Amino acid sequence: MIGDAPYEEYVPTTEELHLLKKEDPQVYETYWKVLCHFHICGQTTGWRNRGVKQMFWACYLFSDLNDKNVPVTRLASSTDEEITERISASTSSYTTESNDDTFKPDTVFESFHHHAKIPISDWALLAGFLTLWLKHCMVPTLPHKVIVADVVYPAVLLAHGKSISLLQAMVATSKVACGH
Question: Which of 68, 73, 132, 176 has the highest count of CB atoms within 10 angstroms of its CB?
């Protein structure tokens, strides 16, 4: 519960991500994969309060979660047909119009849906589960029952064994919940 870094929910800046890619490529790759799947889940189930409902995220990551007669299985890779269908229902690419963070104008980004073709790694699946654990059990902050992108980074750090101090965040959350 007591770690080296304080628990902080946020989305790293592009500069922080460039550093992370150099210093810890495995954490960077996991973060990218979880964030892509988070956005796929948000697009396919509908965004709620800037995030994804906890149960939708859980069912996205773990198939057959609601069926007690069937074993729970991990997220399967998407087929080309599924990806094409999802992309046709959304935007297939994004082009920057001006300087957007460190990206120059006219930079084209392909859809994140293509990442669903690759099987989700154990690290990414664990980080996805840890987003649920953090928001439901440890630090249930607003919006309730919703996973926001800000919780993905600390979950990825925890999945890779990075030490994070949760005690202060838990105490602060419990004080707010009790009206103190």
Answer: 132
Supply the range of the domain harboring residue 112. 78-118
Are 27 and 99 contained in the same domain? Answer: no
Kindly state whether residues 123 and 173 are assigned to the same domain: yes
Q: Which helix (H) or strand (E) holds 46?
A: none
Indicate the angle between helix axes 25-45 and 80-88, nearest 10 degrees.
60
Query: What's the whole-model pTM score?
Result: 0.81
Which range (102-111, 116-125, 161-170) has the least confidence?
A: 102-111
For the chain, what is the radius of gyration of the CA atoms? 17
Per residue in 57-96, pLDDT (tens digit) is 999 999 888 888 999 999 999 999 998 888 887 765 566 6
Q: How many domains are there within the chain?
A: 2
